[in-house]
């Protein structure tokens, strides 16, 4: 769990949160601030906004515990609280357009927050939230949330809307529509070589790169040759290796504004490639596959996605073919020898007593086929020295 990884005692936080706000001394607020500093929500709040907002949250946050399968809030209810998950997981279940069928959108883990959109826009809840485990929450009332975090959250949504507006996919959208869409995106950061998703995993999210670069790689199957040739004069032999070799090749590096994972989400159930952070750090916006398919469905947007994916797939298929060509093992091909090389070999063979005896045996017994070979090398320096001495005299030495 989150607090086990950080060696922070959850009970200490719960004890302070259960103390009434009016009775929390400054030392308790500072202690709570230090204990919650590394929770992802507060870590981003401090980084993007200011320390004062975190301090004020620690003054007014309260504790809420709900058992497994309990409903935190229902779709259509009036929003009254903002929730930060301290322990446990919750699932977001959203209705379809008719409001009859509910589908699971995503699962939020410890350190995530939810519930701000209904408070900011003064509108009903858009989804139902259910506890997957026994869960502990830090909760802010609507009044305290709007006073402390309202400006920060609105600014964050506006920033996401402006960023999305700069992308070709969302160029035709209005800022208000993008602000509503921005609520479904979650900022997420990665470090170098950290995996974003792996080939073969369920395609659950789509990512848009805000900062940094990521590497796209794929498992590539390379066919082995059916036969090999040993030596320049060897005969073809069946290959004892497997008919296929599996290798992993880098097919592209993408950066700012690129959308990754969308093709797999729209056309299949699993990721067909692996994505890792290539730069020292990378910042992305993550949206669940359910919300992506639900929100991105206009003909113009789908047409832009189809055109982009067609071009990208063409480039990646070309990269795969190049990797297969480079990595493909091939049998050794025989090279035609020059006349000078052939004469040199003939001169060496002429000095070999085995070859002389073979000629005598073959001329005497033409039907006899001998399979023995000499036990010494014809490329021995002794024979080379004799040939060179015949050509250039005794001065030719190695």
TrEMBL record:
Pfam families the UniProt entry points to: cNMP_binding (PF00027)
Taxonomy, superkingdom: Eukaryota
Domain Cyclic nucleotide-binding, chain residue ranges per copy: 48-166, 169-216
InterPro entries: cNMP-bd_CS, cNMP-bd_dom, cNMP-bd_dom_sf, RmlC-like_jellyroll
The name this protein goes by in its record: Cyclic nucleotide-binding domain-containing protein
């Amino acid at each position: 769990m989150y607090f086990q990884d950080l060696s922070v005692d959850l009970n200490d936080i719960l004890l302070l949160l259960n103390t009434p706000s009016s009775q929390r001394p400054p030392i308790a607020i500072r202690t709570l601030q230090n204990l919650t500093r590394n929770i992802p929500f507060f870590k981003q709040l401090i980084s993007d906004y200011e320390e004062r907002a975190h301090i004020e949250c620690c003054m007014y946050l309260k504790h809420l515990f709900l058992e497994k399968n309990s409903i935190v809030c229902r779709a259509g209810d009036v929003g009254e609280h903002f929730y930060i998950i301290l322990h446990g997981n919750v699932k977001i279940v959203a209705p379809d357009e008719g409001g009859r069928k509910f589908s699971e959108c995503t699962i939020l883990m410890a350190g995530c927050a939810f519930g701000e959109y209904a408070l900011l826009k003064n509108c009903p809840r858009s989804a139902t939230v259910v506890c997957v485990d026994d869960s502990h929450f830090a909760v802010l009332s609507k009044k305290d949330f709007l006073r402390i975090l309202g400006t920060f959250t609105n600014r964050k949504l506006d920033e996401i809307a402006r960023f999305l507006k700069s992308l070709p996919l969302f160029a035709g959208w209005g800022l208000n529509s993008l602000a509503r869409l921005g609520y479904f995106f979650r900022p997420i950061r990665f470090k170098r070589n950290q995996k974003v998703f792996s080939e073969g995993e369920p395609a659950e999210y789509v990512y848009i790169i805000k900062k940094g670069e990521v590497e796209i790689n794929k498992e590539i199957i390379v066919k082995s040759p059916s036969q090999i040739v040993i030596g320049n004069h060897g005969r073809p032999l069946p290959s004892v290796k497997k008919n296929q070799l599996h290798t992993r090749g880098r097919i592209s590096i993408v950066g700012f504004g690129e959308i990754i994972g969308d093709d797999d989400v729209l056309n299949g159930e699993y990721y067909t490639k692996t994505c890792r952070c290539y730069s020292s750090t990378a910042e992305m916006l993550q949206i669940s596959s359910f919300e992506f398919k639900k929100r991105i469905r206009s003909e113009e947007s789908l047409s832009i996605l189809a055109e982009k994916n067609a071009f990208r797939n063409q480039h990646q298929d070309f990269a795969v073919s190049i990797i297969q060509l480079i990595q493909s093992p091939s049998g050794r091909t025989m090279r035609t020898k020059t006349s000078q090389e052939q004469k040199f070999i003939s001169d060496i063979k002429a000095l070999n007593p085995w070859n002389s005896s073979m000629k005598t045996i073959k001329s005497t017994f033409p039907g006899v086929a001998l399979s023995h070979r000499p036990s010494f090398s014809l490329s021995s320096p002794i024979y080379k020295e004799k040939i060179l001495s015949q050509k250039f005299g005794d001065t030719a030495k190695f």
